[in-house]
Amino acid sequence: MPLPAIYADMPVALLPAQPMATFPVNTFLENLAILPSGDIYLTNHEVGAVVQLDPDGNLTTYAQLSGKVSGIAWIEPNQFLVNGWNAEGVPFVAVLADGAVQYLQTLPEAQFLNGITPLSSRSYLMADAYRGAIWSFDVTTQTVELWLEHPLLARSDETSTFPAVNGLKRFGNRLYASNTQRLLLLQMPLDERLKPQEPEILIEGTNLDDFAFDVHGNLYGATHVYNSVIRIDRDRRTTIIAQAEQGVTGCTAVAFHGTDLYVVNNGGMFLPPATGVEPAQVVRLAVGVSGAPLLSQG
Fold first, then answer.
1. Degrees (nearest 5) of the Cα angle 255, 272, 287?
2. What is the CB neighbour count within 10 angstroms for residue 30?
3. 232 with 167: CB under 8 angstroms?
4. Pairing of strands 123-128, 211-213
């Protein structure tokens, strides 16, 4: 079944793109976290690895876990929060320090842990893409709790393998979430205790995986099976800023470092192009605008 042509009439303004690293065909790069130093940490989903890409372009395995790894966020420069499934297929949350597992908890009540983002300096949120929920992890107490479960975060078709709630980012006093299967971008106000208020639909008909904001509040999103990166400005207008020919086929996540946007992909593993699955890549897009700090408030 062909994909809905949701971006067919969107304006295109391609940004300068540079490949930074290439991986073998059938490598599923799922997410990334970038330190102030410019070191990039990538989750290699299918093999359960976290890979470090240094500013000189060198690749090394930072950590190896049993099972699959999905989301990643840095707590401190030598400490990361990751999630995924263990070898038995049970969702887990882990803290990595200097490449070793410092803490690990399984979450049998979860289904598909995915994107991670800081809510505050001690609290991190994690999307549960099949349960239609968001979990929180407290880095001080190392406890996990269900933060929000809501129909707008859930799949409309539970037989579909497409994830529902997927990417998460806080900007100001709102949390934003993508529901990939339902082609929605959601927003939810946060109260003074950073508790979620009722989610609202901000944009319909957009296929977002992970995304990031610049300092002005413009959103940059990976469209995964649409093989493109888009910008949605504050007036809700969409522009395509990168396409397959720039190396973003199967793009899954984006993150800012300075005025550059880094994109990771899987080469089209989920929905291969006519020419077949391509090598996975890390691609740098010259946006020319600074990314918003992940903890601009709170």
1. 25
2. 24
3. no
4. unpaired
Establish how many alpha carbons lie within 13 A of residue 279's alpha carbon, considering only the half-sphere containing its beta carbon. Answer: 10
Rg, Å, the chain Cα set: 17
User: Which residues sit opposite 185 in a β-bridge?
Assistant: 178, 203
φ, ψ of residue 87 to 5 degrees: the values are: -65, -20
The one-character DSSP state at 223 is -
Segment holding 137, helix H or strand E:
strand 133-138
Bridge partners for 211 per DSSP: 221
Residue type, 81: L
* pLDDT band of 1, cuts 50, 70, 90: low
Global pTM?
0.97
Q: Residue 273 is encoded by which pair of tokens? A: 């192009």
Give the tens place of pLDDT for each residue, 74-133: 999 999 999 999 999 999 999 999 999 999 999 999 999 999 999 999 999 999 999 999
Using DSSP's 3-state secondary structure scheme, residue 268 falls into coil
CA distance 150 to 278: 36
Helix residue ranges, H only, 140-241: none
**CA–CA separation, 27 and 234 (whole Å):** 34
Find how far residue 295's CA is from the centre of its chain: 16
The answer to whether the Cα torsion of 187, 286, 52, 293 is positive or negative is: negative
CA 142, CA 162: separation in Å to the nearest integer? 30
Q: At 3, which amino acid appears?
A: L
